[in-house]
Amino acid sequence: MIKAKTALVTGSTSGIGLGIALSLARQGANIVLNGFGDVAGPKAQVEALGVKVGYHGADMSKPADIAQMMDYVRNEFGGADILVNNAGIQHVAKVEDFPPEKWDAIIAINLSSAFHTTRLAIPGMRAKNWGRVINVASTHGLVASAQKSAYVASKHGIVGFTKAVALETATTGVTVNAICPGWVLTPLVQKQIDDRAAREGITVDKAKVDLLGEKQPSLQFTTPEQLGELAVFLCSPAADNVRGVAWNVDGGWAAQ
């Protein structure tokens, strides 16, 4: 199915990105990782699955870095057959208190980076008449929450971008879709839980339950592995005609 194809997963040294990379590697895809922090650990996890693994440390807020990363994937792996745009950051504040530099960074990393990777990946996918672009959006690409104006704007933007590029590639073997997770217990979310516990003077476990209870009716976190398996499905022949969807995996959040 995707054996020996190459998947570039941005923001994949931890959390959702690493979960997706591991799921694709289990199906035989070669993986190019990207992200900050520990690289050796995640790389070893993927290599243990017997596939070729590369890494590029592009800063996803910088178009020149992204172009260098795409050149690296083309030169070392023959291009990205599967592109997973996952890199993302968050900042929480009321709009009147929102630092403009934080707004710019969130839009750059959560939204503009996907434009830059996609515009550079699509020509190679068209040439092969096969490709998969999977944008990791969020339930916040479908509904809003207070104090997250930049994040919500960026994720709504990525859903719209997904639909537009899906239409442009609709008659080709290239599909473009978005996954919209609700609460996933990643380092990003763990930080929000820890901050909440400290702010409200409650235990971390109580902060977790309170967080889920506000939004996610299942009261369960989605796992990176579950999102990875959805990405595998979107890469399969069964999903050849799944185009332009925003597939929420959110424990019923958006159903309310």
UniProtKB/TrEMBL annotation:
Protein EC: 1.1.1.30
Species annotation: Piscinibacter terrae
Gene3D superfamilies in alphabetical order: NAD(P)-binding Rossmann-like Domain (3.40.50.720)
GO molecular function (one): 3-hydroxybutyrate dehydrogenase activity
Name the UniProt record assigns to this protein: 3-hydroxybutyrate dehydrogenase
One GO biological process term: monocarboxylic acid metabolic process
Matches recorded under InterPro entries: 3-OHbutyrate_DH, NAD(P)-bd_dom_sf, Sc_DH/Rdtase_CS, SDR, SDR_fam
Domain of life of the native organism: Bacteria
Enzyme class: oxidoreductase
Keyword vocabulary terms for this entry: Oxidoreductase
Family (UniProt): Belongs to the short-chain dehydrogenases/reductases (SDR) family.
